[in-house]
Amino acid sequence: MKYCFLIIETVIEIFFSCLTAWNSTFLNQTTYAVGTNPMGVVVADINNDNKSDIIATNARSNTTSVLLNTGNGTFSPQTTYSVGAYPVGVAVADVNSDNKPDIVTANSNSGTVSVLLNVDSGTFSPQTTYTVDKFSWSVAVVDVNSDKKLDIVTANDVSNTISILLNRGNGTFSPQTTYPVGLRPFAVAVADVNNDNKPDIVTANYGSDTVSVLLGIGNGIFSRQTNYSVGPSPCAIAAVDVNNDNKLDIVTTNGGSNTISILLNTGNGTFSPQATYPVGRAPHSVAVADVNSDNKPDIITANQGSNTISVLLNVDNVTFAPQVTYAVGYNAWSVAVADMNSDNKPDIVIANHGSNTISVVLQC
C-alpha cells in the first residue's frame, strides 16, 4: 500500500511540474555527471536498443563520456574513453559500415580527430587518430564524395580552413585536404543546400561575422567559398529547412550580440540577408527540431553566459515567437534535441561546461 501511495505522489508531482513549467512545455532538468568541462554533446542509439543515448566530449579530461539510456529518459553512470587533447566537437555515425554507430571527436589542442569504433552493445575500441589543422572546434561525418562511405569534415579555427578526410573503407581515412573559409571558423555543417544531390559545406566564422558556403562539385571537391554576413561572433551553425519550402536554410548563434541569425535559401544555394532574434547571453550552440508537434521546425539554443536554453517556436514558417528560457547547468555550451523517453516528444540535452554535467530536460 505504501508503494502505491509513493507511485501516486510521484505521478501527481510530475503532473504539477508540467503545469508550472515554463510555457507548460518542459520539466525541470535532471543532471548527470560527466568528465571535466564538457563542450560537445550528441544523442544517438549506440547500442541498438531503440533508446537514445548521450555522448559528450570532456575538454579538460581528454575523454568522451557515454551515458546509456536505461529507460524512460534516465541514464546509467558514464563510461569514459580517452581521445585527443581538448576534445570539443563530436559526431556519431557508422564509419565502417558494420551497422554500429561509431564516435568521432575533434581534438582542438592536438590537431587531430579521434575515431572510436563501436565494438558491441555500445562499447568502443581505443581511439585511432588522424591529423587535421590545430584548434578544430567542430566535426561533421557525412559522405561527401558519393561513394557510400562516411567522410570527416572539421572546422579549423586558427588556419581559417576546413579539413576533409575521405573514408578509405572499414573506417580508416586518407590524409586531410583543406579549403579556405572565413576567419576563425568555429562550426561546420554538411548538407545539400542547392538541391543537386551533392553535399555542400557551410561554416560559422567567429572572426569575420560571416558564414561560408562551399558548394559540392562532385567526388568530394568543393567550389570556392561564398560568404554571407551574420551577427557578431557566430559560434554554431545548422543547415535545415526552417520555412518548409524544401530548401535548406542557415541558422547561426551569435555570441557577440546574444542573437540568432536566420538566412533563408533563395534557391540554388544562395541566401537572403539575415533575420535576427534575441536569445540568452552568449549563445554557443543551436539545434532545430519540431518541439511542439505542429510540423514547423523550432529553434533551441544553449546560452553559455546566462546558464539557460532558449526555445523559439516557429509561428508561421517565416517568423519565430520570442524566446522562452529554461535554467540549466553552469556555462551551457552545447545542445541536442531528441526523444529521450520514448513518448514521441522531443526532449533537450545540454552539456554544462562549467559544472561537469549533462542536463536532460524532458518535455511534459
UniProtKB/TrEMBL annotation:
<protein>
    <recommendedName>
        <fullName>VCBS repeat-containing protein</fullName>
    </recommendedName>
</protein>
<keyword id="KW-0732">Signal</keyword>
<dbReference type="Pfam" id="PF01839">
    <property type="entry name" value="FG-GAP"/>
</dbReference>
<dbReference type="Pfam" id="PF13517">
    <property type="entry name" value="FG-GAP_3"/>
</dbReference>
<dbReference type="InterPro" id="IPR013517">
    <property type="entry name" value="FG-GAP"/>
</dbReference>
<dbReference type="InterPro" id="IPR028994">
    <property type="entry name" value="Integrin_alpha_N"/>
</dbReference>
